[in-house]
Write a structure and sequence with these properties.
This protein has one helix and nine strands. By secondary structure, the protein is an alpha+beta fold. Strands 1-2-8-5-4 form a five-stranded antiparallel sheet, with no helix packed on it. This is DUF11 domain-containing protein.
């Protein structure tokens, strides 16, 4: 047998082995189809509570008070806005709207899952409040819009 024939025989044998391996590999391939399922949580509303009442107001004055917003959800949230507010009628007969608080858009910070953050707000007393407004506590109804900050 000549050298050329030996080389051809070896090359042929190698090709045969590779072809057989390819067929054996292909014989183990398969595919499947189906589906999977998961669920999503339901957002739980936050609450706003009074934290610090701020300095006492007098006609035409402004004071900073603090509220705490909680996040009862299992994911972080960002406060998108806190509503403007006007005081309710007091137990002493001070008229509604005597004290106002402007809206706050995009206050800084993120509230961690199941966490709380304090936010400073501004309250202003009317320049000419009724005499019945002296020594009163003013309740400021507020709402906050929150958005998930998961990422």
């Amino acid at each position: 047998m000549t050298a050329t024939r030996k080389r051809l025989a070896v090359l042929g044998g190698v090709l045969l082995v590779l072809a057989g391996a390819g067929v054996a590999f292909a014989a183990y391939l398969s595919s499947g189809s189906g589906s999977g399922q998961t669920t999503s949580s339901v957002a739980v509303n936050s609450t706003i509570s009074s934290n610090t009442p701020g300095a006492q107001l007098y006609p035409g004055s402004t004071s900073t008070y603090t509220v705490t917003i909680n996040n009862p959800n299992p994911y972080p949230v960002k406060v998108v806005s806190i509503s403007a507010s006007a005081s309710e009628v007091t137990s002493g007969g001070c008229p509604a709207g005597t004290v106002t608080s402007p809206a706050v858009a995009n206050p800084a910070g993120t509230i961690a899952p199941n966490g709380t953050v304090n936010y400073p707000l501004t309250a202003t007393m009317a320049a000419d409040p009724a005499n019945s407004c002296q020594g009163q506590t003013f309740t400021m109804p507020l709402t906050a819009q929150l958005a998930s900050a998961a990422g």
